[in-house]
Amino acid sequence: MSSKGIPEIAPRFPAPAPEALALIRERRSIRAFLRDPVPDTLLEQLLQTARQAPSGGNLQPGRFIAVRGARRERLMAALLQDFAAQAPECEDYAYFPQPMPMQLRKRQVAAAQALYGALGVARDDRAGRDAQFARNYRFFDAPVALVVTIDSHFGPGGYMDLGMALYGLQLAAAAHGLGCCAIGALASYPATVRRVLDLPETQHIVCGLALGWTDEAAPINQTQTTRAPLNEWFQTLE
């Protein structure tokens, strides 16, 4: 009872599911995988779950392409050749702001330091850093290699919806004990990806995705980036 004799109504906050919160808080990018295959039925289940993500107008933009066998080998070889040659290519969309604000640049550098530090690769070891970056184009040797595309007629809203589906896929994978790593580096060579996969020009290359069972013993999987404090990106206006 309150001091005025009026019954107090306790705020009703439903108890969170501890497992769900743990999946969100503990999710991280995985870059070393066990060789064990991921069953097709499980992959299909993960993709169906990912498609429950919000979507404006229920348009559900984007495609997920599993690349396997000889086609995967050809794709990896072509991408590695492009990377080694530093072949310039026009990307389908811009990711990083130009110019990069110093605050964001500091975050980018800190993430790179955490990654290469876990591997023992020094800042001035260009060969070591290039060798690690090249693993993006091998999908980090994960058992599942996905290429994610979007129809070129979609605007930024389509990318937003697709991003939510990608996050849903990663959380669904984590719920099954699997690890993932989104691979933005694939978007650096969209023409190569389209050529090897026989995709039309209207299919923009968004990213790759490596998926599989996490190698918990790999040092690189111990990397954990930090997040900006709440007061940097949240405000209240009255």
In short:
The chain has 8 helices and 4 strands, in the order H-H-E-H-H-H-E-H-E-H-E-H. The protein has 238 residues and is of the alpha+beta class. Helix 3 runs antiparallel to helix 7 (190-197).
Structural write-up:
The structure is a single chain. With 238 residues, the chain is of the alpha+beta class. It has a domain at 29-95 and 134-223: NADH Oxidase (3-Layer(aba) Sandwich), CATH 3.40.109.10. It is built from eight helices and four strands. The protein has helices at 18-26, 40-50, 69-85, 102-119, 126-134, 156-175, 190-197, 230-233, and strands at residues 63-66, 144-151, 178-183, 203-213. The protein has a four-stranded antiparallel beta sheet, sandwiched between helices. The radius of gyration is 21 Å and the shape is globular. The mean pLDDT is 92.
Strand content: 5-15%
Q: Which fold does the CATH topology of the domain at 29-95 and 134-223 refer to?
A: NADH Oxidase
CATH homologous superfamily annotation of the domain at 29-95 and 134-223: NADH Oxidase
> Low-confidence parts, pLDDT < 50 over ≥5 residues?
none
Q: Helix count?
A: 8
The amount of helix comes to 40-55%
Under the CATH scheme, the architecture of the domain at 29-95 and 134-223 is 3-Layer(aba) Sandwich
CATH class of the domain at 29-95 and 134-223: Alpha Beta
The secondary structure category is: alpha+beta
| Anisotropy-based shape | globular
What is the β-strand count?
Answer: 4
H and E order: HHEHHHEHEHEH
Strand order of the largest sheet: 1-2-4-3
Report the sheet with the most strands, covering strand number, pairing sense and barrel closure.
4 strands, antiparallel
Termini separation: 31 Å
Family: Belongs to the nitroreductase family.
Domain Nitroreductase: 24-213
Keywords: Oxidoreductase
InterPro entries: Nitroreductase, Nitroreductase-like
